[in-house]
Write a structure and sequence with these properties.
The complex is a heterodimer. Chain A is an alpha/beta fold. Chain A has helices at residues 38-52, 69-79, 91-95, 99-112, 132-140, 193-199, 240-249; strands at residues 2-7, 10-12, 34-36, 56-65, 83-88, 117-121, 144-154, 157-164, 167-174, 177-181, 204-208. A nine-stranded mixed sheet of chain A has the order 9-8-7-10-6-1-4-5-11, sandwiched between helices. In chain A, helix 4 (99-112) packs across helix 5 (132-140). The N and C termini of chain A lie far apart (60 Å). In chain B, helix 1 packs antiparallel against helix 2 (14-25) and helix 12 runs antiparallel to helix 14. The longest helix of chain B is centred in the last third of the chain and has 18 residues, at 332-349. The radius of gyration of chain B is 22 Å and the shape is globular. The chains are: A alpha/beta, B alpha+beta. Bound molecules: flavin-adenine dinucleotide (2 copies). One flavin-adenine dinucleotide binds next to strand 3, helix 8, strand 9 and helix 16 of chain B. Chain B: Its EC number is 1.1.99.39.
């Protein structure tokens, strides 16, 4: 049976309205509600289901970030992960933390923890990079099954159904492997009260990138973050004729 | 089809848009006048000269007379009532409302004031050919005092839009209800809407600071103060709060907005039986105290039919009863500690069987969404008889099993849900289609039962068209007489929302 390592990132909750900082260096995060990246929830759910199906022996959740990343790890523990590793990255270093760094951290931890499968979300909804799974696989030189909508165990390896443009692709990989979770992989559960309580007592280890020997010097410089163009306000039209006229005017019919 | 597009343009909230499309594209409900055997009162009928006059005030675009255009304004949200109005007017200012009413009063044309048309007692649609006066274009926010929290807005502002506006300024609207994406502040005031957070922020009679309204004769009554305290003379604004368009048309509202809570948490629990819900409520009040902002319940049928009909996720497993607890506070740590203590205690005691708790906005929304959609879920099955009653908490749930037994297999679903904290239960009875037989089994039975338990036959939805003849179950004769006198004083020709609220005689 295998050990599954799951990456979970703390991001601004998807239901919160995003505000760009006045100096365009990023978005406002202070005083803003954060939650686990939704694709990472799917990753955790998949790992926990593997354990429930006795396909995995242990689920280890990893989060790289400031102290509050522990809340996200507690959520993963409440969903069913067995233990958690918090790789503390705070302050300015966290602001420039990039997929390459996270991939290196995950790769190193996978080796240290003797993981057989790494599952991460296909992307984080804040930076939308969609790179961590691929880079982790490259660093480890493991096979990868990205955008997974179905993962099954098959003779010594995994059968992964991938969501690709206009359809599905089924691939087989050997284990160890890296998987990235797409939206339709599963519907993540809500942590139940007893599990929320239990999660408080599950082991959570704190380490630093330095402990792992990983250099966090930024490789990418963010030049500017801009708001998307404001959508034109809708308008209420008095009757069908006016609507039809407007549609014609705009060349829509 | 075109009709559908237009509705899409007008409405804000997906869920209700779907419902309205259904109502526009399906078989029309029976005419209210026939269904309930009502006699038209002696009002004038709209002539082309009247339409022309309206057009001189509003222009051509804001006077709807085409049948297709007018139909949706004649049908209420639950597709129970259908009026026969030929004209819909959409004023943009208080002045225009005043001119319209003064004209109608003189000509003895009856008028039906209409907001978001989400009312559940048939008050918002005409019965015969009353002129529909729809406030949707009076949708400007006039001012917001960020220090006192006093907001002034026009009556046609959609509740959710105003809430979003004040939220960006760290305030919230003191009321919240499932229809927020469509209902209007003027409609909320006119129905004295209660909703999901009454427990915490109180009744609109407390939050409304001022009202501007137009009387039947067109005279504008300016009580639009933003003061918390104003003891100069009679408190006239209260006459317009909850009078359901029968005493005047509300055109502007001043409302007190509480601060946006910094910490919000929602718990959703399974509970074994109703008695345990009451115990849990008592415990929540004492453990959570000032941070408790909502305490809602729903029975198994309410949740399972909503999950099934609207294909929504249920975040927890199947239980006989469900409770939703929300806290609003100013300190996450402090609130979290209180909540944890409460949860540990009640998990241990067994009052809470299981459930989930979250302060992630997305997850909280999913939970609230399930609760808020119960109201409309039954419409997918057919016709829904809706009861909205106040009962002493110990009798809160008694009626549901009684009704279930009384109707047997005539009903598809009989479910109960509502605001435990306010002693207000909603009972929805879903049947394949409206029949007099079922109606006869339910009414006046339900009202008699409520009256015997010293409850109110309408806790928050009002009296509207559907309940005037039952109002005596909850109001004393002396009170009804004074209501009639007030009506005569404020609207001597009775043009404002006739056939509604007041019983024919008392
Ligand atoms: C899904 C759903 C959930 C709901 N939940 C709740 C709830 O929790 N609590 C609750 O109290 N209600 C609830 N309701 C009922 C309804 O939404 C409220 O009564 C709401 O306040 C009505 O607002 P409206 O703008 O839609 O008014 P309408 O339905 O248009 O009108 C309601 C009444 O007010 C009159 N009126 C409207 N606007 C004015 C005006 N400007 N001046 C004078 N009279 C006017 C109408 O003539 C009518 O009598 C719910 C309805 C739905 C569909
Ligand atoms: C030391 C002091 C402190 C005060 N502090 C405050 C304060 O903080 N806030 C505040 O609002 N007021 C305050 N007041 C004013 C006063 O106490 C209040 O207005 C109080 O509510 C009056 O109650 P009362 O029974 O003395 O009424 P009265 O003084 O007897 O009557 C007041 C008015 O009410 C009428 N009235 C009395 N009883 C009835 C009845 N049963 N039915 C119909 N009409 C009736 C009377 O005709 C009269 O018009 C204060 C007064 C004092 C002396």
């Amino acid at each position: 049976m295998s050990r599954v390592l799951v990456g979970v990132k703390r991001v601004i909750d998807y239901a919160v309205k995003i505000r760009v900082k006045p100096d365009k260096s990023g978005v406002v995060t202070e005083g803003v509600k954060h939650s686990m990246n939704p694709f990472d929830e799917i990753a955790v759910e998949e790992a926990v289901r593997m354990k429930e199906k006795k396909l995995a022996s242990e689920v280890v959740a990893v989060s790289c970030g400031p102290a509050q990343a522990q809340e996200t790890l507690r959520t993963a523990l409440a969903m069913g992960a067995d233990r958690a590793i918090h790789v503390e990255v705070a302050g300015a270093e966290y602001e420039t933390l990039q997929p390459i760094h996270v991939a290196k951290i995950l790769a190193k931890l996978s080796q240290d923890e003797k993981a057989d499968i790494v599952i991460v979300g296909k992307q984080a909804i804040d930076d939308d990079s969609n790179q961590t799974a691929q880079m982790t696989a490259a660093i480890l030189d493991w096979p990868q099954g990205t955008f997974a909508s179905k993962v099954e165990k098959s003779d010594g390896g995994l059968t992964v159904t991938r969501e690709i443009d206009g359809g599905l692709e089924v691939i087989k990989t050997k284990v160890p492997a890296v998987i990235s979770a797409d939206l339709r992989l599963n519907e993540p559960r809500y942590a139940t009260l007893p599990n929320i309580m239990k999660a408080k007592k599950k082991p959570l280890k704190k380490i630093t990138a330095k402990d792992l020997g990983i250099d966090l010097a930024p490789r990418i410089k963010v030049v500017s973050v801009e708001d998307p163009p404001v959508r034109q306000a809708g308008s209420v039209l008095p009757d069908v004729d006016t609507l039809v006229a407007k549609l014609k005017e705009g060349g829509h019919v | 089809m075109l009709n559908t597009i237009r509705l899409l343009v007008q409405c804000q909230n997906k869920q209700y848009v779907l419902e309205q499309i259904r109502c526009a594209s399906q078989v029309l409900p029976q005419l209210s006048a026939e269904k309930y055997n009502v006699k038209r009162k002696d009002f004038a009928t709209v002539q082309s000269s009247d339409v022309n006059f309206f057009k001189t005030i509003l222009g051509n675009e804001r006077v709807l007379t085409d049948d297709n255009d007018v139909t949706p304004f004649n049908i209420d949200w639950i597709k129970n009532c259908r009026g026969q109005s030929k004209v819909v007017l959409k004023p943009k200012s208080t002045q225009e409302v005043s001119q319209i009413l003064s004209y109608c009063n003189e000509k003895k044309l009856a008028v039906c004031p209409q907001g978001g048309n989400t009312g559940l007692v048939g008050g918002s649609v005409p019965v015969f050919d009353e002129v529909v006066l729809n406030l949707m274009l009076m949708n400007n926010i006039v001012s917001l005092d960020e220090i006192s929290g006093a907001l002034i807005c026009e009556a046609g502002c959609v509740l959710e839009n105003v809430d979003n506006y004040v939220r960006e300024r760290n305030l919230i609207m003191p009321l919240d209800l499932g229809a927020k994406g469509t209902c209007q502040v003027g409609g909320n005031v006119s129905t004295n809407a209660g909703g999901l957070r009454l427990l915490r922020y109180g009744n609109l009679h407390g939050s409304i600071l001022g009202v501007e309204a137009v009387k039947a004769d067109g005279i504008i009554i300016d009580c639009l103060k933003t003061l918390k305290k104003d003891n100069t003379g009679y408190h006239l604004k209260h006459l317009f709060i909850g009078s359901e368009g029968t005493l005047g048309v509300v055109t502007k509202v001043a409302i007190h907005c509480p601060v946006l809570p910094k910490a919000v948490t929602v718990g959703f629990f399974g509970v074994e039986n109703f008695e345990n819900i009451l115990q849990l409520y008592k415990s929540a009040k004492s453990s959570l105290g000032e941070i408790l902002s909502a305490f809602e319940m729903a029975d198994r049928d309410a949740i399972s039919s909503t999950v099934k009909n609207l294909n929504l996720p249920n975040p927890i497993s199947d239980y006989p009863f469900y409770v939703l607890v929300e806290t609003h506070g100013s300190d996450e740590g402090h609130d979290g500690e209180k909540l944890n203590r409460f949860l540990s205690k009640e998990m241990e005691s067994g009052l809470i069987l299981d459930g989930t708790v979250t302060s992630e906005p997305g997850k909280m929304q999913t939970i609230w969404n399930l609760r808020e959609n119960i109201a409309g879920a039954g419409l997918r099955h057919g016709y829904v008889f809706k009861y909205d009653v106040s009962l002493p908490q110990k009798h809160y749930y008694e009626l549901v099993p009684k009704i279930k037994q009384r109707l047997g297999d005539k009903a598809i679903v009989v479910c109960g849900y509502g605001h435990i904290g306010d002693g207000n239960i909603h009972i929805n009875v879903t049947v394949p289609e409206y029949t007099r037989e079922v109606a006869g089994l339910l009414e006046p039975y339900v009202f008699e039962e409520v009256s015997a338990l010293q409850g109110s036959i309408s806790a928050e939805h009002g009296v509207g068209f559907r309940k005037p003849h039952y109002i005596h179950y909850s109001k004393d004769r002396s009170a009804l007489q004074l209501m009639h006198q007030l009506k005569t004083l404020m609207d001597p020709n009775g043009i404002l929302n006739p056939y509604k609220v007041l019983p024919e005689e008392c």
